[in-house]
Write a structure and sequence with these properties.
Helix content: over 70%
Strand order of the largest sheet: 1-2
Order of helices and strands: HHHHHHHHEHHHHHHHHHE
Number of helices: 17
Radius of gyration: 23 Å
Distance between the termini: 35 Å
Length: 441
Amino acid sequence: MAGGQRGRPSPGRDFGWLWAAYAASALGTGLAFSAFPLLAITVLHKGAAEVASLAATGAAVGAAVAVPLGPWVEFRRKRSVMVAMDLVRCAALLSVPVAYGLGRLGLTQLLLVSVVVAAADITFGAAAGACLKALVRPDAMVAAQARLESTTWTATVVGPPLGGALITLLGPVATVAADAVSYLLSAAGIRAIRGREPRPEREKRTGVRPGARADARPGARTGARTGARLGDLVEGWRHVLAHPQLRPLFLHTVLVNALIMATAPLLAVLMLGPLGFTPWQYGLAFAVPCLGGLIGARLAPGLVDRFGRHRVLLVSGSLRVCWPVGLAFIRPGVGGLLLVMAVQFALITCIGVFNPVFAAHRLRLTETGRVARTLTAWSVSGKAATATLTALWGVLAGLAGPRAAIALAGALLLATPLLLPRREVPTDTCPTPGLTRVSER
């Protein structure tokens, strides 16, 4: 295989197609970043409560719908699942401009589309993780994840401004249509990946004690298969919580992401309300720091080569939580704007380093037959935690003010590095007893 930068192994040509597919969908998502809220406000004339409900309910219900899809993805060919989810998202999004053109667009349809897209996002992500693990060599995984992370931040920087221009010229429905087309491009990129994908094997919990004779009756076999299918729904959480390396990473990442996201609406209220920042200043404060994500993702593979995966994971995971508490000290004027930009830049740079290393490490620690269920459980838990803490911090802000709520979240974040694993445990020391592999029929 051709070498990468400085002799680093290349993720390979097939990864290039997966990367191109991801770039297309990420850019489409960036273009349509604010399309649904704008549609609800400008076309349907809905208020703040209904717009907030649209965002929160769509994500929460979509996550719940995705729970049973994790086991379904695990035992299907992943590329076929990814193409199917791209087509589902494309069809759902295209229903919006069609309904708009017919004069039938309503809030219920936007909510249903949000649920479908959210569930498809989680399902696609679970299949993509398993596909990535199969396509990329372990020693090139950090480099591959870094490229995906760079693409995410590029789309975050470029997408919303372009989407805003497109909305200004053609209206918010145009960005929804552009997002739908991006999923068609993503599906085409996935279809271009060469090589036959083998059919996955089913992992079945036997429930038979060591040394005991299995019951040969036909009814017993049927019951075992039914129990295994029901157990598949929680297998992702079971695997994560039983693993000495994944468990602390799971608790750390879910809590950190939820605390960071819970303060986002409070900071918007503070900046656009009492502090008097304009919308363009608010947008600038969060767009420019996203360049830090590009820098961090570019640095990640080299840092791993020099210092090792576990050390980079520990240091970047600890550094990224040091900054958000600074947002509690924001003041009006240019100084306050620069403070937000500096804090966000430092935070996002550390995230840019942490995310690809963490994602590669998580795939390394997860068996191929459990990747989809593990990623689904992780994503569903993250969305649920974010929704819960966002609601709690909204109540807290109402009682003590947004600045106090932001300060509390920042203080709690400072304690989260305690959840990171202090030492690396070899993968082969983490067995999962009671499981056998049988071919799915």
